[in-house]
């Protein structure tokens, strides 16, 4: 079996790290397959959402394969895309979701933070466990984690190497939904299907404005928002959806789980 499995579920692309015998840690071969999967997703107009997960219930991803760490840095393209395969890829214009089961630690936490948001099973655990061996975060953890959970929470996790559970992760904003054990992937696919049902241009441009605006002063961010949405306001599908609204069509709003 390959180290990374891919599956098309309608307009959703499920990417599964498939090394459960080593808690889905990533070596050079796995990183390259993750990179290729993201390339496929980026290029395919028939795919709207990528869901990243790990095989089995024990681990989403425990990080880099420290017994084969040289294969990560010597992989062709590692400098451009990041040792774990995707962390330095920032030109994806479609949503990505992490479906987290079990351990999500070290570089695995960085992979989860690469995604737009995270849906966790109740048995999920998160931490910068590489702190114990002096291994740094070089796949975006020092940049994405503070943007997601705030400076204090990020430095707490990074400096202490604490291992936290799914409920703690949700309290600090690292996780957006917690579902029963074994249901993270199916819930993420359900959410992805809802995203696919929306008019795509407005959602993707909103996403782009949010991400680009993180590094801009407010005034520049507001100007950027207007520029980004010039095409949105001319999108024929927006007119069609407004006509449906005027005719009384009210789709049920998306709701998080109870």
Name the strands of the widest sheet in spatial order: 1-2-3-5-7-10
| Reported CATH architecture of the largest domain | Alpha-Beta Complex
Rg over CA atoms, rounded to whole Å, is 19 Å
- Whole-number mean pLDDT: 95
Tally the helices.
Answer: 12
Give me the CATH fold name of the largest domain: 2-enoyl-CoA Hydratase, Chain A, domain 1
Question: Can you put this structure into words, describing what you see?
Answer:
With 258 residues, the protein is an alpha/beta fold. The protein has 2 domains: 4-196, Alpha-Beta Complex (2-enoyl-CoA Hydratase, Chain A, domain 1), CATH 3.90.226.10; 199-246, Helix Hairpins (Orthogonal Bundle), CATH 1.10.287. Helices cover 43% and strands 17% of the residues. The chain has 12 helices and 10 strands. It has helices at 28-43, 70-73, 78-81, 107-114, 141-149, 151-160, 166-171, 184-197, 200-213, 218-228, 230-233, 236-246; strands at residues 4-9, 12-17, 49-54, 59-61, 96-100, 103-105, 117-121, 125-127, 163-165, 177-179. The strands form 2 sheets. The chain has a 6-stranded mixed β-sheet with strand order 1-2-3-5-7-10, sandwiched between helices. Strands 4-6-8-9 form a 4-stranded mixed β-sheet. A hairpin with a 2-residue loop joins strand 1 and strand 2. The model has no long low-confidence stretch (mean pLDDT 95).
């Amino acid at each position: 079996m390959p180290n990374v499995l891919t599956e098309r579920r309608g307009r959703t692309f499920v990417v599964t790290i498939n090394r459960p015998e080593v808690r889905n840690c990533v070596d050079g071969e796995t990183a390259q397959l993750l990179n290729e999967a993201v390339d496929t997703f980026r290029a395919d107009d028939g795919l709207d959402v990528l869901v990243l997960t790990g095989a089995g219930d024990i681990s989403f991803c425990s990080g880099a394969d420290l017994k084969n760490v040289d294969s990560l840095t010597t992989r062709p393209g590692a400098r451009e895309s990041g040792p774990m395969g995707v962390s330095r890829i920032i030109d994806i214009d479609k949503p990505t979701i992490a479906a987290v089961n079990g351990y999500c630690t070290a570089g695995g936490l960085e992979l989860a933070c690469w995604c737009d948001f995270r849906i966790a099973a109740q048995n999920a655990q998160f931490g910068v466990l590489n702190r114990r061996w002096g291994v740094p975060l070089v796949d975006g953890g020092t940049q994405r984690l503070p943007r997601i959970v705030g400076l204090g929470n990020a430095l707490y996790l990074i400096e202490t190497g604490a291992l936290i559970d799914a409920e703690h992760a949700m309290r600090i904003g690292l996780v957006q939904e917690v579902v029963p054990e074994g249901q993270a992937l199916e819930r993420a696919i359900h959410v992805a299907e809802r995203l696919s049902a929306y008019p795509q241009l407005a959602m993707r441009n909103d996403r782009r404005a949010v991400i680009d605006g993180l590094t801009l002063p407010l005034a520049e961010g507001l100007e950027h928002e207007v520029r980004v949405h010039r095409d949105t306001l001319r999108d024929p599908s927006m007119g069609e959806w407004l006509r449906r609204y005027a005719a009384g069509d009210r789709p049920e709003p998306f709701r998080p789980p109870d």
